[in-house]
Amino acid sequence: xxxxxxxxxxxxxxxxxxxxxxxxxxxxxxxxxxxxxxxxxxxxxxxxxxxxxxxxxxxxxxxxxxxxxxxxxxxxxxxxxxxxxxxxxxxxxxxxxxxxxxxxxxxxxxxxxxxxxxxxxxxxxxxxxxxxxxxxxxxxxxxxxxxxxxxxxxxxxxxxxxxxxxxxxxxxxxxxxxxxxxxxxxxxxxxxxxxxxxxxxxxxxxxxxxxxxxxxxxxxxxxxxxxxxxxxxxxxxxxxxxxxxxxxxxxxxxxxxxxxxxxxxxxxxxxxxxxxxxxxxxxxxxxxxxxxxxxxxxxxxxxxxxxxxxxxxxxxxxxxxxxxxxxxxxxxxxxxxxxxxxxxxxxxxxxxxxxxxxxxxxxxxxxxxxxxxxxxxxxxxxxxxxxxxxxxxxxxxxxxxxxxxxx
Length: 407
Ligand SMILES: *[C@@H]1O[C@H](CO)[C@@H](O)[C@H](O)[C@H]1NC(C)=O
Ligand SMILES: *[C@@H]1O[C@H](CO)[C@@H](O)[C@H](O)[C@H]1NC(C)=O
Hints:
This protein is an alpha+beta fold. Helix 7 packs across helix 8. It has a single domain, classed as TolB, C-terminal domain (Neuraminidase, 6 Propeller). Helices cover about 20% and strands about 35% of the residues. The strands form 7 sheets. A 5-stranded mixed beta sheet has the order 2-3-4-5-9, with no helix packed on it. A 4-stranded antiparallel beta sheet has the order 1-27-26-25, with no helix packed on it. Bound molecules: 2-acetamido-2-deoxy-beta-D-glucopyranose (2 copies). One 2-acetamido-2-deoxy-beta-D-glucopyranose (NAG) binds next to loops. It comes from Tagetes erecta. This is Strictosidine synthase conserved region domain-containing protein. It is found in: Vacuole.
């Protein structure tokens, strides 16, 4: 036993030396004088983040041996571009979705198809923004701020107003007939809300929403994860006083938010830390934050079903190699300064794209897991909505909506 431990120790020391040598050889790369690496031109400072060990999480995560998500249907292919959030109005019409070209569109049936319902920016123009399939690629990046990027959507059942978390224009609202959305809050304590991402409406009218980072905006969202920075916040907007409050700060890529059926707590995802969290907003535990579940990948939105259970969309997945980088910020500093494209660097870490969706009850127990391990049908899922006997699945980077009969 003793000996084995010592050998392992020496082995570890050797590895350390090799790694150090590589680090020195790549020293120049860190300087990245020609801004050739993915992080070129950014103040990229990786830090440790609070993520559960890979083996522990994967060992207890249930497998969907049937890969049921792989049997989903892709619909409206190349008609909707990056439909992140899917929402139905109080009359059950829709779905509505916010697209990468900046529009919020509504499905008006086979005859009329997809119609533009609302815009988030006065400066939106068809020429500049309506670039179709290109809007989910880097070609849109330079115009995204002008065109807008509506992410989270929620209808207020009483008023029929649609509330929108737009990545660039903050928290917004538009009436039941659509049109140009109006900003409700775009700054807090004099500083702009940099990256509004998702929202939910409390029964008392207050709106909880996430501001994913104070450092990077949506176009640069990959850096939030690579760096492990935790400047994200959960905010609350109170309509009677038109005031915005910081509910939680220091979060690592806060993303989806969903209030419980009884309004006593809300769930939110921390994408960088691959976990689902709970904040109590009523009762004895009010203000307490708890871990609900560690996830096998990077979670996005959370949506409640009629039974008060929670669907979480997860992009996969974590890998062993990536864990080494997560635990060693200095390695990330070197690795992501290598003059290769981000997608090649990610592939080299064994990261492949597939999707998992998971249903949780109000105690945080896993009720169901569906996945598509080959990533054939569904990639980069952003939201799962259970409605009309189906799951409606959005994606932030692909040009379709996926559906699956459920249960
Ligand atoms: C899925 O496969 C694993 C490993 O082969 C097995 O342990 C597990 O029971 C299976 N789950 C179901 C639901 O069949
Ligand atoms: C709604 O409830 C939350 C949670 O208790 C509270 O913080 C907020 O101030 C309330 N909003 C209004 C408008 O009363």
